[in-house]
Design brief:
Helices cover 69% and strands 0% of the residues. By secondary structure, it is mainly α. The chain is elongated and about 60 Å long.
Length: 137
């Protein structure tokens, strides 16, 4: 399989969302883009994502920074072993709130994209390679 390089101009919000996405989310989005390009090459049809689809896909790929995800795990372990301080507990609540907010935003984006594409949420999740339960960490 040969490889090519292409430059795509996107607005600042989309670029920022891409930059803040985790490596796993980026890989899933890249795989989906590759799949669309392969299908379009087979059908000689030019792939096109609307601006709205692009925005929604980037919102779906949003996640906490890896260091924040790791910190939640560390603080959760401390809480389970009852060695968490009040300050650490407040930090855990703040970080957990951020994670829940992002999960809610991702879910709203999944629902909106499913409506936009006129497919079920389950079908869209299959198309995007999302596993039930994993997207709502």
């Amino acid at each position: 399989m040969s490889s090519r390089t292409a430059a795509i101009n996107v607005d600042a919000d989309i670029a920022q969302a891409w930059e803040s996405a985790s490596t796993a989310k980026r890989k899933r989005l890249q795989a989906q883009i590759r799949k669309w390009l392969e299908v379009s090459a087979e059908t000689k049809k030019v792939p096109h994502l609307s601006r709205r689809e692009s925005e929604l896909l980037l919102r779906i790929s949003q996640d906490l920074a890896p260091q924040n995800r790791q910190r939640i795990e560390e603080l959760t372990d401390k809480m389970e072993f009852e060695s968490i301080t009040d300050q650490e507990h407040a930090e855990l609540l703040r970080l957990s709130g951020e994670a829940e907010k992002l999960a809610g935003e991702r879910l709203r984006a999944v629902i909106e994209l499913a409506k936009y594409r006129k497919v079920s949420v389950d079908e869209l999740m299959k198309q995007l390679g999302m596993e039930p339960g994993r997207h709502a960490r």
